[in-house]
Amino acid sequence: MIAAGTVAAPAKAATPLSDEDISQAYIYLLGRLLVARQQQLDFQEGFKWNELIHRKPGAVDWPNPNLDVAYSEAWVAIDETSCTIVTVPEIAGRYYTVQFLNGWGETLANINERVFPNRRSGDFAMCLRGAKVEVPSDALRIDLPVPHSRVLARVALGDDPDRAVALQQMFTLRATGTPKLPDIPKTPIFELEHLPGVEAFDAAAAGLESGPDTNPGLEPLRAQVRSIATAVRDNPDERKRVDGVIKQHAFPDLAKAGATIGHGIVHNGWARPGVVGEYGLDYLTRTLVNNGGIWANIKPEVLYYRGGKDESGEDLTGDHVYKLTFPKDALPSRFAKYFWSVIAVDNVHFRVLPNPSKRYLLNEHTHPRYAADGSLTLYFAAEKPAEAPDGNWLPIPKGQKYRLTFRFYGPLDGVANGTYWPPALVKAD
């Protein structure tokens, strides 16, 4: 209580948000908007809650697709009264997984032989954590922390793609009751090469309220996002300032961080992410991955390396021939329990590159030939080099700038413990 005769001190004005505050809030929010964007596109395509869509191999349209697997996709809704039953067929000698992700691209669960070595098939009941709901007696209950999630089932094509597709069709989903279905959030649907500016904050409430971030410690950033959204709503000057900060500060921050995949490490021209699939406080990497390779899984399932430079530090381009040589004692197969592969994608949309040969990846099933000394050399070029076996060559369009994504499924040895990087790419012409 203020004593009589005294004058109250004026209220302290709120500290204006700095350019750095705005940039970081935007990068944080963008991670959610990228997933909400894909969700809207999915439902525009015809997705229905708790129903799987079985894709033909290769028929997926997101950045950095895995062309080694047959994908099935869905959005799942559960609540206090209903679970969703996932039926997994018996699969032996072939990689598979059913991955669940939340609205920020965080992996919540996998169903596969790694996670459930004593229950590799059958029914799994995906239920909301804490829900007192009865599940079928023959189903294994798995609790999820959120009521809505994205599902990707993967079945490795291996050397018998027809069998993989037959197995893919056996995966099913069904709800045990009638869950409350959410409205699809209305957030900007943008092209990945044209990220939203200040209008991202117009969608802040829709994005944050429709997809809870389950990582503790990021509450201050969410508050900052809401504060900026309020500031730009009715203030043209502040709106203009925030838009300028996004374009002059946040966009360059993202571009700079993209070279190392956030807080990852680059060696031999290959970037290895520090975190993937589960991000904790590293919202920067989460946003970069959602932009350049949405639906990434966790490290025990797969490890991704991205290569965009040759041994001299120059960008990769279809105007040159590059060789990637693995010595006998460090072949890719040494580092993958299940399989390895490498694809080339463009630097803008991160989509595989069209070519007359319609070959979009190299792996064991392209039947690469090994040298007399046991080493393996892969070639990347517009035309097949004379010395290159056909199964060792990935066609690259002339004049195209690109990057490579090297995958190790079931990481082993140095890939698993973070001490390995692929060899440097050598320009051979």
What does this structure look like?
The protein contains 8 helices and 20 strands. The protein has 429 residues and is of the alpha+beta class. It has 3 domains: 19-39 and 185-258; 50-175, Domain of unknown function DUF1254 (Immunoglobulin-like), CATH 2.60.40.1610; 265-427, Jelly Rolls (Sandwich). The strands form 4 sheets. Strands 10, 11, 12, 13, 15, 16 and 19 form a 7-stranded antiparallel β-sheet that branches. A hairpin with a 2-residue loop joins strand 10 (265-267) and strand 11 (270-272).
The CATH architecture of the largest domain? Sandwich
Q: Which CATH class of the largest domain?
A: Mainly Beta
Radius of gyration: 24 Å
* Total helical elements: 8
Q: Helix content range of the residues, please?
A: 10-25%
What's the number of domains? 3
Q: What is the H-and-E element order?
A: HEEEEEEEEHEHHHHEEHEEEEEEEEHE
- The chain-level mean pLDDT equals 94
Give the biggest beta sheet.
7 strands, antiparallel
Structural class label: alpha+beta
Number of beta strands: 20
According to CATH, the fold-level topology of the largest domain is Jelly Rolls
Assign the CATH superfamily of the largest domain: Domain of unknown function DUF1214, C-terminal domain
Low-confidence stretches at least 5 residues in length (pLDDT < 50)? 1-13
Query: What percent strand?
Result: 25-35%
Give the distance, in angstroms, between the N- and C-terminal Cα atoms.
82 Å
Tell me, briefly, the overall form.
Answer: globular
